[in-house]
Sequence to fold (214 residues):
Amino acid sequence: MKTAIVFIHGWGFNGSIWREITAHLPEFETSSIEFGFVGEAANGPLTISDNTIPDNAIIVAHSLGVLWALQHLPKQPEGFISICGFDRFSPPVPRGDLLIMKHGLKKNPMAQMSHFWRSCGIAPIAKAEQLNQSALIEGLDGLMNWDGREGHENLTCPVHILAALDDEIVSKRMSCDIWGEEKIIWSPSGGHALPLTRPKWCADQIKQFVEYDE
Fold:
């Protein structure tokens, strides 16, 4: 039976960020959780039932997806891979920064998201009509209020941490404070959107993690 991998995307993205990564992982059974920030939601809103996560699944999560998983996963996974992730976002990121983003979303969603995507190191990935304003605001509320530190502490499965040295959203210091510098595998570049900018590197890291764990 193929190893099951469940992908969970971050804020401002959708499940399409995993497309190139999964193309490099044909030996795995892959699925993704969709929050509906961009385009039509497959599963949204930001809740999930037990039967969505296969038994013995490996979780691969990006950014907000990591925080969400640490707070909301209904059961302990077989393994956990964080890509540009965190167990709490605010603090260390000031709450005021997120309130400014929230105001921007209400005033001009496309301008706000274009600025965010550029900060991630990529061009805009969607058009204005594809943005789900209410889901994006709900996600910002999660970034402001969720606390996954207990879930982080309670992880008993193998954990693999991936991050980029040039990430403008989650700084090196923030990543090191959360995970411990010795536990992080660094990409020298790629920004916050590593699944899109370095898909082969991410896929290779996933393969090595699964093979080592086995």
